[in-house]
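Protocol step 4 of 5: obtain the predicted structure for the target chain.
Materials: sequence only (see below). No template structures provided, no constraints applied. The aim of this step is simply to have a reference model before the mutagenesis design in step 5. Sequence pasted as it appears in the construct record:
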Amino acid sequence: SNGLNQVWEREWDKLMHRTRQRPIPTGRMSHTTAMWISVISGVIGVFILWNFINTASGILGLSAILMYVFLYTPLKRVSSIAVLVGAFPGAIPPMLGYVANTNDFGLEAGLLFAMQFVWQFPHFWAIAWVSEEDYKRAGYKLLPFDEGQTPRTAFQILLYSLFLIPVSLLPWA
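Step 4 output (structure tokens):
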């Protein structure tokens, strides 16, 4: 997913301090090579999950790749809704691991998903806060409000951080 994301965003990665040293913007790897490596790795990964682990894991792996690349990646330049959309593929890996081991979408899998899902918001918004100028150069809209680094945005980050407390206690409960 991340490799295909970098292929898609190669021109915008050149504009940002934190991404301009990636292999594609620097020319250390062509975007065609990166695309093929990413596609082949993704196909092999989903094939292994689907055929050697269980079908549910394969479906989760494929869903994560498709949502990350074809929904989250293009939405980053459209609206901060991208963070919500990206939280879904971002929360799949822990759930996928549980489902791979148990072949069960039970309560435990849902709790792992919920914890990772809620964590994505304060985590990503903190990065967007620190990288706001970089993101603006690339045209990304990732803070929760268009006005950027304001007390309202900080409160939103704090609020979602506080949501982590009850969500992280759910497995214990």
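Step 4 remarks: The CA atoms of residues 5 and 121 lie 19 Å apart. DSSP finds nine helices and no strands in the chain.
Proceed to step 5.
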